[in-house]
Predict the 3D structure of the following.
Amino acid sequence: MLETYVKTRIAVESFVRRQAELATSSEYRWVWLVLIGILVVAAAVAWVYCRNAGYRGFTGDIQAVRGPWGIKIGVKLGCY
């Protein structure tokens, strides 16, 4: 009886611990999905821009263009 109780108790504690770890790891999963989505959309827009500008595609290089006093005023795309 005691052995069954101990095994059950360990199994329950293990289950609760796994569920807590799963909840913690998936808590911010939507943030990563949103960030990846933004990167995919930005790359697609850059590729379309490069194609429309007469280039064959987009190299993956995006740099900030700084204006007066170091203020970011735009982006420079790497087209090939």
